[in-house]
Amino acid sequence: MISRRAVGLVSGLVYTFLLAPILVVIVASFNSGAFLTFPPQGVSLRWYGAFLHNEVFIRAFLTSVEVASLATAISGGVGTMAALYTARARPKVADGVRIAMMLPMLLPEVLTAIGLLFYFYALKIGTHFGLALIAGHILLTLPFVYLNVSSALSEFDWSLNLAARSLGASPMTAFFRITVPVIKTGLVGGCIFAFIVSFDAFSTSFLLKDIGTATLPLQLFDYLRLNFTPEAAAVSSATVFITVLIIAVADRLFGLKISRF
Amino acid sequence: MSRRVLLLLPSALILVLLLAIPYLNIVLISMRPSTPDMAYGSGFTLENYRAVLSSVRTWREIGTTLWIGGATTACAFVLGFPVAWNLARSPGKSQALRQSIVLSPLLVGIVVRSYGWTILLGNNGVMNRLARGLGLTHSIVPLMYNRLGIIIALTHVFLPFMILPIQGGLQNLDPALERAGRSLGASRRTVFLRVILPLTMPGVQSGCIMVFIMSISAYVTPVLLGGMRVKTMPMTVVDRLIDSFRWPLGAAEALVLSGIGGLVLLVFVALTSRRWNRQ
C-alpha cells in the first residue's frame, strides 16, 4: 500500500546500518597492522593470538562466563516456575504477574544497578563475593526466560497433562515427560538469550562488580579508553563468533524459537 | 488458592527483595544528608533536591540528555517503521535473514557495537575517509565526540526495540483495511495517517517508550562516542557514585532525571492517544 519500492529501499539501508558496526569490527580484527586502519593493511590472526595470550582478557572472559552461567541457571529455574504459574492463572492475575515479571526489563538498567549498589551496602555486604553482581544479572535475565517459556506454554494443551495423570503418571512424571518436552524450545531459547544478555551487560556489571574483578565488557571498555590497537576488535569479534556458534548449535539441537515480546 | 502459588514464590522474593526494596531505598538515600567521610549521614533532608534543582549545570545536562533521547527515539521511529512494515508485509525467502539482522544488535554487546561506531565515525574513520576519497569533502567532518555520534550509535543500539513491537502491531493488521481505505478514495498518506498509524499506535507507543527510557539512561555509548565532550545525566550520576562517592546527591539526580523523563513520556502518551485513538 505504502510505496513498496520506497519501503524496500529504506529497509535495505537500515539493514546495512544495523550490520555496519559489527562487520567493521570483524574486518578490523583481521588487520595485520599495529593500528586500526581502513582498509586493513593485510590479513592475519595476529590480534587473536594477542588476545589468547593476554591474561587480563582471558580472566575477564572466564568471569563473564561464570556470572552469566550462574545468573542464567537461577533465572532459568525461577522464570520457568513463574511462567508455569501464569499459564494456568486467571487472566487478571496472569496480567499482573506478567507486568511484574517484565519490570526489570522496563526499568532503566542504570537505576536498578544503583538501587542494588545502595542496598547491598546497606546490608553490609557491599560488592563482596560477587553477590550484588549476581543479583543484578538475575534481574537482567529473568524477563527473557519468563517471556520465552511463557510463549512456549501458550500453545500447550493442558489436557495432555491430565491425560497422563489419568493414565497413572505421578505429577512429577507428567511434568517431566509431558510439560518439559513441550516447553523445551522456549526454555532453551530463553536461557540462551539470558546468557547472552548477561554476558554482554555493561552498566549492571560496572556498578556492582567486586573490586579487582572485571567482566569482559568492562575490561574491553577500560582498554578502549586508552588503546586503539586491533586487539580490542579481535576480542569483540571473538564474542560475536561465540554467540553465533552457541545459537547455531542450539538451533541444530533443539530448533530455537526466540521471542522477545 | 492451591499450592501452585508456590511457583511464584521465588520470583516474588526476587522482585521484592532485589527490585522493590532497593528502589524505595534509592528514594530514602536521596533524602539523606551528605557527609564528607561516609557515603551518607543519618537524618532526613531535602537539601539534595534543592541543590540538584537549583544547579544550572544539572538543567543543562538534563536538557542535553532529553534532547539526545528525543532525537534517538524520533530517528528510531523513522527508520524502524519501514523496516517493521517490510518484515510484516513482505514474507519471502529472505524473511528469516532479515529478521535475524534486526535481532543481531541484541546479540552483540553494547561495548562492541559502540566500538564499531567509533571505527566508522572517527575523524580518521571509515566514513570520513570514504567521503574524502570520493571527493565529497576535503576537511574532516566531525561525526563523533558530539551529539550526532551519540544519536547515531544510540539509534543503532535501540532500533530493534522500536521495530519489534511495531512489527507485532502490523502483523495483526488486516491488509484489507488499507485496500478499503484506498478504494474509498483516500490517498496513501491519508490511509497511513488515518488507518495504519492509529491501529498500530499501541506498538508505536511501546517502542517509543522503551527507546526513550533506554536512551536517556544510556551510559557506555555516550561515554565512548561523546568522548567526555558531551555530558549526559547518567555520566554525572555515575561519577558522583563511583568517583566522588556522594550518594545522596547522585540518588537525587537520578530520581530527578527519571521523574522528568517520566513526565515527558506521560505527555507523549497523552498526546498520541488523543491524536490517534479518537474514533
Q: What is the number of strand segments of chain A? A: 0
The DSSP helix count of chain A reads 11
* Relative helix content of chain B: over 70%
Total domain units of chain B? 1
Integer count of domains of chain A: 1
- Beta content of chain A comes to under 5%
The mean pLDDT of chain A is 86
Question: How many strand units of chain B?
Answer: 0
CATH architecture of chain A: Orthogonal Bundle
Largest sheet properties of chain B: none
Q: Termini distance of chain A?
A: 26 Å
- Largest interface: chains, residues each: A-B, 80 and 80 residues
- Low-pLDDT sequence parts of chain A: none
CATH class label of chain B:
Mainly Alpha
Question: What can you tell me about this protein's structure?
Answer:
The complex is a heterodimer of chains A (261) and B (279). Chain A is built from 11 helices and no strands. With 261 residues, chain A is an all-alpha fold. With 279 residues, chain B is an all-alpha fold. Helix content of chain B is 74%, strand content 0%. The model of chain B has no long low-confidence stretch (mean pLDDT 87). The relative contact order of chain B is 0.14. Chain B has a single domain, classed as Orthogonal Bundle (MetI-like fold). At the A-B interface, helix 1, helix 3, helix 4, helix 5 and helix 6 of A face helix 1, helix 3, helix 4, helix 5 and helix 7 of B.
